[in-house]
Amino acid sequence: MTRRDFFGLTWRVLTAFTAGQAACIGLRFLASRKAEGSFGEVLIAGLSGDFPLETVTPFEQARFFLIRFADGGFLALSSTCPHLACVVGWDTARRRFACPCHGSEFERDGSVVNPPAPRPLDRFAVLIENDRVKVDTRQALRRTSVTPEDLVYAPTTPPPAPGAAPATLDSTAPGQPGPGYR
Amino acid sequence: MNQDDSRGPQPGLLTRVRRSIWREPWPESDRGRVRLTLNDLILHLHAPRVPQRALRATYSYGLGIFAIVLFGVLGFTGVLLTFTYTPSPNDAYASIQTLTAEIWIGALIRNMHHWSGNLLLIVSVLHLLRVFYTAAFHPPREFNWLLGLGLLALVALSNFTGYLMPWDQLAYWATTIATSMLNYVPVAGASIREFLVGGGDIGEFALRTFFAFHIVVFPPLLAIIISYHIWRVRKDTFSLPRALNEPPLDRRRIERVTTIPHLLNLEIGLALLALALLIAWSTWVPAPLEDAANPTHPPNPAKAAWYFMGFQELLLHFHPAFVTVVIPGLTLLGLFLLPYTDADPRPERNVTGIWFRSRRGRWLAALSALLGAGLTAALVVADEHWLDLPALFGGLPTAISNGAVPIGALALGLVVYYWSLGRQGATRSERNLALFTLLFAAFLTLTVIGVFFRGENMALVLPWNR
Ligand code: HEM
Ligand code: FES
Asked: What's the pTM?
């Protein structure tokens, strides 16, 4: 290696190093920005008696629906669409959740009737203490499929006896007029 | 003795300032003045003489020039808007209302910025089509095609970051959807999303990031790449229009005219015409502004800006990972490889400058456009009314039933089309042209369906029933 080659190489290495450092510093700086605040809390939705059987109650600001099934079970479903984060609405006439962004549709238990949504609606944990229905919106719980275990019962209304007909997780039985949307 | 002393008394201050800028005195003769201007400015970008043929209006359609004018207008109006706009979720919407209601020609300035942005996207795409269909990207202009793709991406990103600014419903929901798409990008997607919007909802963090990109990152990048792109047109020589079957031209023997005034007058004329049309349009057609953003209530239907509706339509039919990663990935790969694989290196097979390559190319373009549009419309209707893919492949995850299976089937169809054209004797360039045309027509059709034929909950409806 000649003297000239040596200096040529040195300059190149130093320049590349400086540029690399600038890039790293820039990225690190930007990555350490913090988003302000976070969403969610444990919210008291009401007393369990406030929610008649077979109803879907929207909590718009907190972004969930509280659903009470025929057997008394509670389910809190996030209204954020699991496809691309639009907000789904409850279609009273068709008794389904529908998303205005790409037309996904969901059953009352959150399962997908119509893609493109790739998984059921997320749920929030429900706790019932002293007859108060509390919903924890701090963390959306993802599901790959829906199960009856997602439902929560007030201690006074026992879950259906084992071997009894499964909870009516899907649509209302025909002819049974639900109180509908509140 | 010092030389300066021999000059006598110093000239006045103004003269000295002028001389510090223009070293030479302003020439006495017309000829001299023309030459000075030439050297200074224009010939930085243009050769002194250009081929007569290059000026044909039905070749370049002045689209590149139009794009430059629009970029200039965007810069000017953008700077003005920056002085009146407040980049915060609480105040942004109100600051736009104040701008349009209270500030002198505020609405016109906003309209011009909005429409120039939209038009720049249209013009860039038309320019890409012109370059594609005249094979102007064949060697030696491969790299300028890549620069052009970079420009197109930056133009699209500028539009995208720009429409968050007014913080209206379109802004909020389109950005929510688009940034959520990143969650389906494997490995880095979620962290990129966090980098852009700071995790949760679209809020102050996202607006700040988008504002920074929109005003201080993208415009200078665009300016630099545009300058380089134009300089490369001169370096790589501008392609020349040819008639069907006209043999390749000998550049040394071609008829030339002087850049000044022939090319320059044409450019200035086009630029002024473009500007006049833009101002007229912006005076009459206001830029849309929806209701203020409401994070609990998307509009129904919630549609993206019209130029992203083709994408949104794809999202209705396929698993999001395929729409976010597979389809754009393959498209970009194809467009990047195109200039390096399309041309036949034999000089007698050079097709640069011939619209649609050949007579067969013209037929194939027409056929493929019809096929692309017709099949797409048919498939969209079928998927809406008859096809129920998840039920058909019951039990399989939607990534397969709504992703791998239909995308694979469509890809297979394209491969068969491509292959059978080869059997008919089409050259590679003609086959690429057919494929490109088919896909572009399909995308246009999806855009039209998305914009005009989607109603409440994105159901398929006729435009007059919406
Ligand atoms: C901001 C966007 C763009 C601007 C301002 C711009 C500007 C220009 C200008 C002024 C020319 C001279 C000839 C003409 O007017 O046609 C040109 C030529 C060219 N452009 Fe662009 N362009 C842009 C985007 C693109 C895109 C998206 C592509 C394709 C991917 C592209 C590829 C080319 C090529 C290959 C040439 C050489 C054409 C020839 O020699 O015939 N450009 N561009
Ligand atoms: S965001 Fe709900 S369907 Fe796409």
From this structure: 0.84
Q: Domains plus CATH for chain A?
A: 42-150 (2.102.10.10)
Write out chain B residues lying below 8 Å of A99, CB-based: 457
Which burial class, exposed, middle or buried, applies to B425 when counting CB atoms under 10 A from its CB (0-12, 13-18, 19+)?
Answer: exposed
- Nearest ligand to the CA of B227 is 1
Q: How far is CA B383 from CA A35, B2, B40, B347, B390, in A?
A: 40, 89, 61, 47, 11
Per-residue burial over B230-256, b if 16 or more Cβ lie within 10 Å, else e, is beebeeeebbbbbeeeeeebeeeeeee
> Which one of the ligands is nearest to B352 CA?
1
Q: Do B179 and B205 meet the contact criterion of CB atoms below 8 Å apart?
A: no
A135 lines ligand 2 (CB under 6 A): no
Cα(B373)–Cα(B447) distance, integer angstroms: 11
Which residue ranges form the domains of chain B, and what is each CATH number?
3-45 (no CATH), 49-465 (1.20.810.10)
Sequence-ordered list of residues with C-beta below 8 angstroms from that of A168, at least 6 positions apart, any chain? A69, A70, A71
pLDDT tens digits, B285-340: 999 898 888 888 888 888 888 888 888 899 888 888 888 889 999 999 999 999 99
pLDDT digits (tens, 9 = 90+) for A52-111: 888 888 888 888 888 888 888 888 888 888 888 888 888 888 888 888 888 888 888 888
Task: Evaluate the CA torsion angle B356, B360, B362, B364 in order and state its sign.
Answer: negative
What burial class does residue B145 get, using C-beta atoms within 10 Å of its C-beta: 0-12 exposed, 13-18 middle, 19+ buried?
Answer: buried
Residue B151: phi, psi to the nearest 5? -60, -45
Residue B223 has pLDDT above 60, yes or no: yes
Question: From A60, which residue of chain B is nearest by alpha-carbon distance?
Answer: B296
Asked if A92 and A105 touch (Cβ cutoff 8 Å), the reply is no
A72-88 burial, b for 16+ CB within 10 Å, e for fewer? bbbbbbbbbbbbbbbbb
Nearest chain B residue to A100 by CA distance is B457
B31: Cα within 13 Å, side-chain hemisphere: 0
| Single-letter amino acid code for the residue at B267 | E
